[in-house]
Amino acid sequence: MPAFFLLVVIALCRVSALRDPVIDEFWTMLFTEPNRTWSAGFAMWSGDTGHPPAYYALMRALAGILPQSVLFGRLANLLPLGLFLALASAQRGREHRRFAFHFCLALLPGFFVVEYFAEQRAYFAALMVLASLVLVLRGDFVPVPSRRRTLGAALLACTLAALNYTQFLAGVAVLGGCVVAHCRGRRRQAALGTLLVLACGLLVMIACLRNGARFETVPSPYRIDMAGFGRDLAMVIALACLANPLLTIRTLRRPAHDGDGAGGFAFAMALGLLFAVLGYTLVNLATHVLIERHVIALGVLVAALLAALVQDRLGEKSYWPHALVVTALASLSVACLTVAGQRNFTQAVPHLVARQKACPQTRIFALDPSVLGPPPQSANARQRVAAIASGYAWTQAHRTLKLEPPGAPRTFPEECGGAVWMAHLHLAPDTDPRDILEKLGFRLAAWQAHSARLMAFPDTVIIAVPGRARSRELR
Known about the structure:
With 475 residues, this protein is mainly alpha-helical. Helix content is 63%, strand content 5%. A hairpin with a 2-residue loop joins β3 and β4. The longest helix is centred in the middle third of the chain and has 26 residues, at 188-213. The model is unreliable at 259-263 (pLDDT under 50). Strands 1-2-4-3 form a four-stranded mixed sheet.
């Protein structure tokens, strides 16, 4: 395991250095600026009602120690990863160590583990805390549960509740599955301890929700129908199974027979996965706001179930552990290459850079989409404007792109033309770019207005105004 852990850490750090930023990372940096007082920070974190405050508090504490940058914010994910790896390495007993080994091989190469490690957001930390909780709960499936394990599980459950609401829902499902399994196995003390852990986590979640209710409520921009939700659910589970295909195939072919029968840990994980799927489905039926990243905790539950079901005889064949590690590293490599190549906030920048390189006088205006409507009134809307402005500043500092300063005359040179870049905006493909340019206050010649083109990217819009030579080509 140590060699595998080292390779995982190196790969994740490398992806963090290569991956393009996402808009929410600039939002996190805005919320956790080191010059912001803790009281002012807590007021902001509480107003962000979609997220508990613990992750913001952690990043604010680290902001006083580490440089504030996208890369260092991502590398802070080494802390929750280190917690999980330490717990996996500290497992005692042949069965617990074997489970931890298979659990790591099924979980760490997962696509969403790689993707969210390379983001300065709470999702990866919550994934690792949930995985750590699973490791601790596995230890309760012995004749005499430990009070120290119960206390550790309670601390992890409270931390998870203060990190992310939707992933704590998966933790509630896991704890519920364990309670049922303990009751069926007549382990009354373990069942009571697990119920205590569940109660502690729920109290922390209620406290976080009540605190957020005192501040501005942020309307959700999502409307996820059940068909789209079902596709996301199926994709998350499928990618979790593909994190280590060899382990998955072996598990499905010859599942292990748990020594505790229907009351064993595998039964508890199967129930937890079922409870989580049902819980997410009910939440989306009521709210229609659950998107892919809200259900990635299912990957942890799938990995735990596979690790619990895998045949014990795998450990008796000397080549199986090596084959499983090789498969895990292959899957990890695929996930790393995929994530490292993602273009997020700067998805339109290569086009802008190419235009400015071809004609250095090309003027690029980076504007916030809010300029198309009334001035932002809510605190959330003003924070969004600041986060996008931070993203523009980061892009100019890290890419060979010159952006026009605020207040620059809104005109384009005849020879080179220019472009308007608006990140985090969606427009219909048939939107007339001349209407947008007019709303933005641009003064254009008639031929420039006629040549303007709208370019829609997944989360970005560019309105390109070509130079005179290129305009003649378009006509």
